[in-house]
Amino acid sequence: MEKIKQNDAFDVLKATMAIMIMVIHIVALNRLGILGTYIFPILRIAVPIFFLISSYLFFKKIKLIGRYGEQKKYLNKTVNRNLMLYLSWFILLSPITFYIRNYFSHGVLYGVITILWNFVFGSTFIASWYISALVIGLTIVFYASHFFSEKAIFWCSVICFFFCVLISNYGELGLVQNLVWKKLRLFPILWTPHNSFPAGLFWIVAGKRFAEKDDFFWFGKGKQKYILLFSLLALYFEQGLINFLHSSFTNDFYFMLMPTCLAIFAWVLHVVNIDVKNAKTLRAFSTITYCLHASFAKIPALVLLYLGLSKSTFAMSLVKFVITLIFCVIITKIILNLEKCRGWKWLKYLH
User: Fold this and answer.
1) Are 264 and 185 contacting, i.e. CB atoms less than 8 angstroms apart?
2) What are the boundaries of each domain within the chain?
3) Tell me: the pLDDT tens digits for 17-34?
4) Which residues are listed as membrane-spanning (predicted)?
5) What φ, ψ does residue 331 adopt, rounded to 5°?
């Protein structure tokens, strides 16, 4: 089977995005007031970029395989690999997860149902929703592509994207509260679609487009600079509008993430092509850091609490961030060295 030569820029980008996601989850930006509010928009490109890279590489491989039967085998291989990643981290982080989630406070049956629900539609260990969303999204888009037109799939994914934006940064608007959130709260277990598989569908479809059409959202190097600049300015203008409307329920999704992330990804594909000596290490670091950081950060938070220090101040959140980042780097090095040893090969499932 033909192999794809991966652009090492993807690994640098993913490692950078993983650190940005750490900032979102650990650093108390809300303590910075209006300044913190305006830091969030640029940080929110991280998850879409993760989806775009994963989808692009998957569908690039699918395009090379050609035969439908072999394509399904590759999909199954990808799904199984991600499920093993999920299960491995779920087991390792289960003491922290069960402590945080308190799953069985309403009985064993309710706890089991909640875990299964969160596995499919949300998160068990913190931020794990991305892995589930990627698995479900790749599967939906792969099979839908054989039954529906490309245009129909694209516009359905755009509708999902707009829906996630509305319930996220515009979720406090009266119309959205009445028409959407009142319905979502009828679920026996809370479902937040902006942290579930609908949130990834547009980016997965876009990643597929990039894999199949080299010039998707590419307008030439000169024009692309202006499109990227305009998109970033529009993203921050949207943040100002959200502040004016006081409409934000959560700040996960912005309308202007669509052109911004597409422009960034197209730029990386067409302009940035680098060879990095430690690309595989960066690749492992990005996955391990994404899965580990938010759960591990609860440990220094408890230590700070034990020492009588406020864990919620901006300064203390920076301390947590630095400790967590150092820990993730060390753990990545340990895993990459240990997995070469006999009896420790299972560690490869962690990245």
Assistant:
1) no
2) 8-16+28-277
3) 999 999 999 999 989 989
4) 12-32, 38-59, 79-100, 120-145, 152-171, 186-205, 226-247, 253-272, 284-308, 314-336
5) -60, -40
